[in-house]
Automatic annotation (TrEMBL):
Annotated PROSITE patterns: HTH_DTXR
Native species: Pseudothermotoga lettingae (strain ATCC BAA-301 / DSM 14385 / NBRC 107922 / TMO)
Pfam families the record matches: Fe_dep_repress (PF01325)
GO molecular function: DNA binding; DNA-binding transcription factor activity; protein dimerization activity; transition metal ion binding
Protein's UniProt name: Iron dependent repressor
SUPFAM superfamilies assigned to the protein according to its UniProt record, in alphabetical order: Iron-dependent repressor protein, dimerization domain, Winged helix' DNA-binding domain
Domain annotation HTH dtxR-type: ranges: 9-70
UniProt cross-references to InterPro entries, sorted A to Z: DtxR_MntR_Metal-Reg, Fe_dep_repressor_sf, HTH_DTXR, Iron_dep_repressor, WH-like_DNA-bd_sf, WH_DNA-bd_sf
TM segment ranges: none
Amino acid sequence: MARGRKKILTPALEDYLTVIYEIQQKQPAARISTVARKVGVSLPSVTNAMRRLADLGYVEYEKYGLIILTNKGKRKAQTMRTLQQRICNFFYYVLGIPIEVSEKLSKHLSHYLTARTRDRIKDFYKIIIDFDETKAKDLRNFIEESRQLINVTHLPAEVLEDIKAVETEEDEEEGE
């Protein structure tokens, strides 16, 4: 790997992986020009990223050739897409955020989540995405477990005060 080049999978490189994965769902391999168009960057930027991904073992790529995800690359891209879809679904179906905004948020947030956080999101997702009264106990247990993980038995005073502030804001908005 060239001097100065990061030897880690960065958020930008993860984005390239997911784009290549999406392309490979429709055709056997991707091309630099197709990736550049989808990501909205220059051909040299994609070429540089492909070299880095190849060095990391995520893609098979030769200059002026096709781009193919390795098994490692495919697994990582599938994991990222699944996580992004879950986050998007949460923002869209649970919070009612427009789909375009939900998709952007999910792509940004997915890069910064640890394995433990991804597991917690998956557990929460199973409860909340199709929530009904039969899952109320599961939600209560999840919240209690979450607070145990961070050694909190009661909400701090500033959080309780913020809840009151939110309620006051809502009352003021309704009165307008």
